[in-house]
Specification:
By secondary structure, the chain is an alpha+beta fold. The chain has a single domain, classed as Alpha-Beta Plaits, CATH 3.30.70. Helix content is 22%, strand content 33%. The protein is built from 2 helices and 4 strands. Strands 2-3-1-4 form a 4-stranded antiparallel sheet. Strand 2 and strand 3 form a beta hairpin. The protein is globular. It starts with 13 loop residues before the first strand and ends in a 6-residue tail after the last strand.
Length: 91
Amino acid sequence: MQKSVEPTAIRYAESAYMLINCELGSEGSILEQLKLLPGIEEAIGVFGNYDIVVKIQAPSLELLREIVTFKIRKIPKIYYTTTIMCSKLLV
């Protein structure tokens, strides 16, 4: 009997959080686009200095960089981003 693995149980080697500033009123459409991208574990609209916070996971640093640079940052109406790379997962 083959054992199945729950997708939520898989932990990728690389992860990052991205803080996004976008055009006023475009948060909903950007969140919809983000949920279609590979590697997006969580995306949520927030209040304060940033408009959206995204958790990204990927099996390699190269793939993580590709998601950040060529997928997320190319979404229209995103003005600028701050990416926080995680060093180790403790829990």
